[in-house]
Amino acid sequence: MKIDIITVVPELLESPLSHSIMKRAQDKGLLTVRTFHLREWAVNSYGQVDDYQYGGGAGMVMMCEPLANAIESLQKEQPYDEIIYMTPDGSTFNQSAANELSMKENLLIICGHYKGIDQRIRDMYVTREVSIGDFVLSGGELAAAVVIDAIGRLLPGVLNDETSALFDSFQDNLLAPPVYTRPADFRGQQVPPVLLSGDPKKVEEWRFEQSLERTRQRRPDLLEGQE
Ligand code: ADE
């Protein structure tokens, strides 16, 4: 999968995407992430990419022309399956959106800053608007890193144990069960005996029950219409 990102602060994306599983995905050639500084398509020699908003009010707006030129010149290299704009007024990202996006080949992500991007760019080019939650970040970069991480780990071959993403929280609209490692007795706190039983069927049943119970208690909304 290839993901291109248009940003005014590429530095914010560097660290989250160059360690651990995201690094492995890129080293293995399963994921290619490229960042493009919007300034490359600035309208003047000052590198201007934002301007005052019509109608007045505090905060700058990212201009149409640099964004349109950036999008169109990148599109000439390859068509995109989706052009995504990171914004708090987008639809809330979740595991099912991650699953869906992980099946695409080429994505372009636009990170907003200041007051956001001119509405006409959203109308003309953007195919999906994504929020990572009901709070406002200073820009779309950290949100984009979150989305790319969630998608990238789902790509076949990225996780060592291919099956492990299948048991993540949310994969079946259930939260993940509790997990334990050695020692079996930690300061008098015991690992549930079933996990030491060596009976895979019993372990699976127990994990499913725990998932269900945890979901009932913490996120009953996930079970609505299912039970
Ligand atoms: N940009 C600023 N806040 C955001 C959010 N919550 N989700 C996505 N992009 C954003």
From TrEMBL:
Entry's Gene Ontology molecular function annotations: tRNA (guanine(37)-N1)-methyltransferase activity
Main localization, broad class: cytoplasm
GO-annotated cellular components: cytosol
Limits of the tRNA methyltransferase TRMD/TRM10-type domain: 1-224
Oligomer and partners: Homodimer.
Summary of the function given for this chain in its UniProt record: Specifically methylates guanosine-37 in various tRNAs.
Family: Belongs to the RNA methyltransferase TrmD family.
This protein's name: tRNA (guanine-N(1)-)-methyltransferase
Gene symbol of the encoding locus: trmD
